[in-house]
Amino acid sequence: MRKFSPDWFRQQFPALHEPNCYLDSAATSLRPQAMIEATQAYYQTGGTVHRSHYSQAKETTERYEACRQQVAALINAADANQIIWTRGSTESINLVADAWLAHQLHPGDEILVSEVEHHANLLPWLMLAEKTGANIVRWPVNAEGELEIEQLALRLTSRTRLVAVTQMSNVTGYVPPMADIIVLAHQAGVAVLVDGAQGIVHQATDVQQWDADFYVFSGHKLYGPTGIGVLYARKDRLDEMRPIQGGGKMISHVDFNGYRLLPAPWCFEPGTPNIAGVIGLASTLDFHQTVDWQAAEAWTLKLADHAAAQLATLPGITLFRAAASPIISFVFRSLHSADLFTLISEHNVALRVGQHCAQPLMQALGVHGTLRASFAAYNTDDDVEKLVKAVTFAYQLLTEEE
Ligand code: PMP
């Protein structure tokens, strides 16, 4: 592993070879050259996975399956076969809802969902509740936008079937106390799904140490390809899941009377999968091996700290940022975030504006939407300067006296 060098790291990302102030990594991160080349190389060869025995197809299958081992190592899963490929965090959560929870849920059962959640970790549960007569129980945030363990304890009942909670908020960067949450839920006999979409790239993750029942993440938030995601399930939970889609390469036998399923994870992956996505993810994870992530994260947080400290001096600004967060959301009193966003974008600073697929959290924070700057290890001091300059310019223009 090489010593973390911000310059070297940045050079790996072709999107940054042109001047580009990219502060939207919480939406999707940029891709390293190695990943782009690996994906291209795959498309320049032939062969699918699990179906053919000519050399290219065999090699592709090996690389494809080896990536499960890489993911298992990344999150410390006990077995690579606990890694199911999906399109992303959204599909992984829906798979838990439909393949694991749906067939065990009764009217009046409860699904406990935190108020911090991205819509991807709320809508699947609301839709499932609609179909089954189960109830969604809100675990509210406090005035600081944080989750209190005492409030969880008050809401765990004999009817609770699942706690759905994020590893990191995509709005404020807040990190819930996951170990405590899981211990408490398990004491009540309740499973926990952890949404790792934001957390995976910023935290070392150990699903066994947490004893998480389910963990999900998306390749594209960790410098990998879009369209590929992961569902990790604890062994006993995996055994409780039932396939919800049928198709090729998920059974060992089928005739007109019935079928015999392959074991997990293959029985949950019918059809030709996103091979290029897995190959791309594999090369991204190879790339991860070459980076000192502790140092990369320290660099990212230092930049976010500098940006937050400077933005905080602007009059009328409110920052929504948890301690040590790579994500900074902010609003200005009596100014529309969308107006600011338009002017900031003219400075070629890539931010995001809106509700960030987290409407309940917006309501709890008492805002209609925010601007959001999210940092990654390829950002620089120059990006911080450009951000502060663009925001200051936009603020001044919009508050200027006639
Ligand atoms: N959860 C969180 C916290 C997210 O930030 C996102 C992506 N914005 C998702 C879930 C959904 O991820 P995807 O769109 O890749 O499925």
UniProtKB/TrEMBL annotation:
It catalyses: (sulfur carrier)-H + L-cysteine = (sulfur carrier)-SH + L-alanine. Its cofactor is pyridoxal 5'-phosphate. It is an enzyme of class 2 (transferase). Keywords: Pyridoxal phosphate, Transferase. It holds the Pfam family Aminotran_5. Its EC number is 2.8.1.7. InterPro entries: Aminotrans_V_dom, Cys_desulphurase_CdsA, Cys_dSase_SufS, Cysteine_dSase, PyrdxlP-dep_Trfase, PyrdxlP-dep_Trfase_major, PyrdxlP-dep_Trfase_small. One of its GO terms (biological process) is cysteine metabolic process. The keyword Transferase applies. GO terms for molecular function: cysteine desulfurase activity; pyridoxal phosphate binding. Residues 22-387 form the Aminotransferase class V domain. Catalyzes the removal of elemental sulfur and selenium atoms from L-cysteine, L-cystine, L-selenocysteine, and L-selenocystine to produce L-alanine. PANTHER family: CYSTEINE DESULFURASE (PTHR43586), CYSTEINE DESULFURASE 1, CHLOROPLASTIC (PTHR43586:SF8). Belongs to the class-V pyridoxal-phosphate-dependent aminotransferase family. Csd subfamily. This is Probable cysteine desulfurase. It comes from Rosenbergiella nectarea.
